[in-house]
Design goal:
Number of helices: 12
Helix content: 25-40%
Order of helices and strands: EEEHEEHEHHHHHEHEHEEHHHEE
Structural class: alpha/beta
Distance between the termini: 38 Å
Strand order of the largest sheet: 6-7-8-3-9-10-12-11
Strand content: 15-25%
Radius of gyration: 21 Å
Amino acid sequence: MKSVPAAPILQVDDLHVRFPAASGMAHAVRGVTFDVRAGETVAIVGESGSGKSVTAMSILRLLGPNARMSGDIFFEGRDLGLLAEREMRQLRGNEIGMIFQDPMASLNPLFPVGKQIAECLLLHSGMSGSEARERTSKLLVEVGIPDPQRRARQYPHELSGGMCQRIMIAMAIASRPKLLIADEPTTALDVTIQAQILDVLQSLAHEQGSAVLLVTHDLGVVREFATRVLVMYAGRIVESAATETLFHAPLHPYTRGLMGAMPPPVVAGSGYRRLNEIRGCVPSAKEHIDGCSFRPRCDRATDVCRGVTPQPHAFASLHSAACHNPLSMKEPA
């Protein structure tokens, strides 16, 4: 008998997010739909201003009272939009972990970092104080921090930005969450520690069956780490595919542009080359967009792109793109 795939642990359906602005409403996320299954890592990629972080923060309802959200977000079948704030607090840090982009703004400057990690454990796991301290030391080692007992007694301002980022990661994975949302988790880390952190997150996904939603600019990390990729532009998902499929045969011109801007592998004696650029910039969330939002930057734009917003179209199994003039799947990346 053919096995039935498990239901997604996270489902986002037609998510829109708007913010009040001086000249009207800023439309940061426009009809985003995707899901994430247990043991899977889904990466959201795109330039700054594409709506990646707003999408991630929407899941945990961390955007503040001025955000205007519509659409549905389900976690293990529960409608997060219907949960009381008390119920959301039970989910945050316990069943859903979050690695924030700016650790210095997220850590409390008044408490030692070890106490902040232990507090997460005491709040969600029911450990005793001594058990929480022991687990804190193990977590610090797990995320690559030496001399954990001494570091645990230090305050955020006594640590480097990279170490603070690792503290945030330790807090996020402390309760072994079912879903981990990681917003640029390796930005402040050198390549050695970056690899170590990615191994920790991969272990969480593979051994614990956790789902990971990864927000990043680093396509190299995406190719190594992600199961599937969502490409966002101007608040929309413009392409979605399995990782190897996307890198082998991107369909959307924007995806091809992002890949063209990736630094090539360093080869001795090969010299240097100027990276390709995508001309122009991402439109402001306050702009009203007719037709395809990528049209002003696209070499393949035609008249239909000016007046008709492209809708996602499936070109192959699990590979879709919202484009009137997609690239050929036979054309190498």
